[in-house]
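Session log. Operator J.P. requested a structure for one protein chain; no other inputs attached. Running the standard single-chain path with token output.
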Amino acid sequence: MKNFIFAVVVALILLIFCTSCGWEVEIVEPTKPSESEAEIVVSEEEKEEKQKVLENSETAEEGSESAEQEEYVEKGEPPISCENVVLETSRGSIYKSLEFEDRIIIYYVEGSIAAFDIETGEEIYEFYFGDVNENGAFDIVKTDYKEGFDYRILTKDKIAYFSSKNDGLIEEVYLPETVAKDIADSRFMMAYSIYRDKIIWQSKDGIKIINTETGEEELLLSNDLIESVIIPSAEKAVPERTFHVDYAPYFFYNPKFICDGEKIAVSVTNERFIFWATALYNIEKEGFEWSYAYDEMLNADYPFADKFISIGGRRFINAENGNEILFDEFTRSFDGTNFFGIEYDDMDMHGFKAFMGDRNSIINGGTEIFSLTNDAATAHIDNIFENYLLVCVHEEGTEWNCLVKYK
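Structure written below.
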């Protein structure tokens, strides 16, 4: 009886505490134990058996953790001919990544975002943001627009701001209604771009711009300009190849702020996806600086280092001054100062070698940064950061994500 009264008192105390905290509490009437329940006595043998089960369970959990650790340890050193830091864990397929002063941030396709120590490869933290294919994420970039945040992810309906130092600091800002409505049915994922308080996006009439502080918006580039301005002035991206002109309705897509928000790089096609082009628009001068047309197999890529545009896969144009650089087809990417060339012994990426040089020397081969030390291994450069390469190395079912310092 005393035990029953004590249980009631404890239950009332917990109920008062939980209610004061604002929790929803389901009230359950305490029941008095029956005589048969009260008289149950556990024998010493039963106690010993339960203790054994508990110990075996704990041992199994420890064994599971050890197995995970052993799986990582058993990877050994990656077959690569340079000093490198192997990232401690992998959360799946790498989608996007960024370099910060002391850490690398990686966003995985499966939805996790993880931070790794740049000198040891140790995982600092990991949290779940959302599957890339489900939330429509298409870009992850550094930003200083919001105090306390240093990078953001653009998705199909919102902008999420993060802090590389604090994984618990997240601010989500939904797109203005007019923007979200226009891009909801877009066939192109990269339908908008942001520079500080301005957003440019693809609408049915062309590229629009809005000031998120004032709400003021306007049609910046009308689709009507394509037939009257872009097509007549477009140069061939690859001189020896032709491009097709079709008379179906044309439209702009994939707008991106470039050169610190002073200009806009934008792609062009038509309803039948026969004509393809890329143009550079100067916002201040209110005019196009150039446009290049190409066939659909050689789409443009931009921006690199906020000022370079890749035309036709081999031609890199500096959007600040119009200077052009030509590279062979194995050139991977660059950060604006250093350029990288890749060589393979065969089409399966065996015999991988990476070279680096400035804008002049890379054309003549550059300086070798690393090569694979095993003919059975393959590799690819996943990203080029300000100071590091993120290199994914594969060998007989084992994968390493390596940081290779090049500066």
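Operator note: DSSP finds six helices and 28 strands in the chain.
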